[in-house]
Design goal:
The structure holds two protein chains of two kinds. Chain A has a domain of 222 residues. Chain A starts with a helix and ends in a 14-residue tail after the last helix. Chain A is globular and about 65 Å long. In chain A, helix 1 packs antiparallel against helix 10, helix 5 runs antiparallel to helix 8 and helix 10 crosses helix 11. Chain A is mainly alpha-helical. Chain B is an alpha/beta fold. Chain B has two domains: 215 residues, Response regulator (Rossmann fold); 152 residues, Rossmann fold, CATH 3.40.50.2300. In chain B, the strands form three sheets. Chain B has a seven-stranded mixed beta sheet, sandwiched between helices. In chain B, a hairpin with a 2-residue loop joins strand 11 and strand 12. In chain B, helix 2 runs parallel beside helix 13. Chain B is globular, with a radius of gyration of 21 Å. Classes of the chains: A mainly alpha, B alpha/beta. At the A-B interface, helix 1, helix 4, helix 8, strand 4 and helix 10 of A face helix 1, strand 7, helix 9, helix 10 and helix 11 of B.
Amino acid sequence: MDFALLLEIFPQVLLDGVILGFMYALIALGYTMVYGVLEFINFAHSEIFVVGAFVGVEILLGLKNAGALDQLPPFLVLLLILVAGMAVSGLLAVVIERVAYRPLRGAPRLIPLISAIGVSFFLQDFVRLIESVWRNAFNLVYPGMEGLNRRLELTATVDVPVKALVVITASLLMLWALHLLVNRTKLGTAIRAVAEDQATASLMGINVNAMISLTFLIGGAMGGAAGVLFGVQYGLINPYTGFIPGLKAFTAAVLGGIGNIPGAMMGGLVLGLLEAFAASYLSLLTGGAFGAEYKDIFAFSVLILILIFRPRGLLGEVVRERA
Amino acid sequence: MKIQRARRLYSVALVALVTLVALVLPGGSLVAQGKGTIKIATQSPLSGGQAALGEGIKLGTQLAIEKFRGPLDKLGFKIELVPYDDQAKPDVGVANAKNILADKDILVVIGHLNSGVAIPSSEVYKDATLAMISPANTNPTVTDRGYPNVYRVCGRDDVQGVVGAEFAKSLGTKSAFVIHDKTTYGQGVAEFFKADAEKKGIKVMGFEGTEEKSNFDPIITPIKARNPDLIYFGGIYDQAAPFFKQAREKGVKSAFMGPDGMDSSDLTKIAGKAVVGMYYTSVAGPVSVYPQAKQFAEEHKKKFGKNPEPFAAQAYDATAIALKAIAAAAKGGVMPSREAVSAAIRKLKHTGITGTIEFDDKGDPRKALYFVLQVASDDPEKWGENKEVKRLSIAAPSAKM
């Protein structure tokens, strides 16, 4: 076993894991916030994520065709596609809630879940339909932006691409903003009040429906931002791209304690790191007997272990108080 | 509890929906138009990430039917093309195969693109001795089973892998890292490459399978640290292209190589500059290397508004063979049986646009061409101009049963 090699790639693997982890964390927020207020899993969230990625690529391709992509400063372009992706995904989430979930608010909890699965399938194929009519394409490629592809070489094996820094910074900023919004503002207090007890919250003069819409808006916007960052980081998207990251982010939310916002961030990071380390190290540590293809098995085995000892997740599930 | 139930429910709902979709989708074949209709089915991925190649196979077949339908028209038969979408998935291919079997007018299947789909599907065709002529399947098992109804017009991976390793050696490669996509085709050809490379003294630093489609970071990091001379990707362009792109972006300097699964203009569409100069082996040369195929390329461009994808010419030849065999089996204007068509193919000698094709008793072409090609430009439109570095004509190995 090549011990020197293990040490040599350690910082790079750590970086890969952190990037992936932040991506999961951003998506996981959407699951966890909706669960916090409505106690149901919004399975359409993975498609909200993909729609964000598609909005980003369409704007980039539009700019590129107009010849403006290389003229504008890359960070401005990035900001533009982030905001656009967040806006479209956030609004989409609000619309989905209004159309597919609100009419089922009083129904048994499994009914909106099925509705969510339906919305998920609908959106997958809707995006595919639009893209095949509009561009006759299945896979779409994020056009490279000069400046973002530059790498800062630290050592021979460790280098930090500018875009990785961008992804990490953007994620951190958004997570911090969300934290402030939920914990320090009146709106945040109202959302938390609705999560705690809808009936009492409405008696206190809080517009429950508006707060639920706001929750979907924020969760969707985070998902859309994650979609744009995913596209920028990995470069290739298709209408079914969201399924696996969505499932993993959902797992991350459960791992951190579903309904718990800091938990979702932490769960995302833990899962991303587990996956990166498993994929890079399994084959080195086992002499090739277990390759990178076992990364999910390894990561999920660890998850099961954690959940056996902490069934409510790392930071604890948010349990609603009942009168 | 709630979550567990929710997740279980999700998977149950998923299975139910997929079944429903699978039931509804392939049933779209046209209703038989009374007596005297002969149908040729294609099976290839028409949707999803590999649709570029799958669509190429369908279009090549369509063009061949229009071109060579004359003799059968004279006998009073109506020829129809029924395209099936196997989605590059074995289960979908088999489900389609069962539908194809049920349609008695279908006498030949042109397909598939993926060996992993062709092998289980041809088990179904075999039940009715329905001929399958493959334009693209290179895995040895396809013909090594010795079925009387299975044919291919292209080469095999046990040769292609060796051709790749030989060429790598001639480039002065000392170390290689091999990655594959875990499919019958990708893993198969990667193993042949690895075995022969080791025999020739190339150090194989690792052999990894992955189904990942977007995030290759964790695989690239250890490769970069080891810095092999060459990275060989046994798989298909829709997965290899983002891998190559991300590897270059992360500063990997190794040369890239792959088998015929790289052979699509979508490789450069996705990976751009990262793959310019990379080598790939193929059993289907670009149309420009076949002198007789020039007219085919022009007609294709005129009719469909784009250049033929690789394997379109092979599908064209496979269809020409199929029509010839049907005409031979339909002497006197009687609707031939599927068995008769399968048997007639074996006796044929056909000079098509990709060369003269004659089958051995396993259904392999007696001699097949193998190419080493180099990507010339990052413009997908110029895929057909890829440079031919080497061309070999090699006989099919005999079955190692």
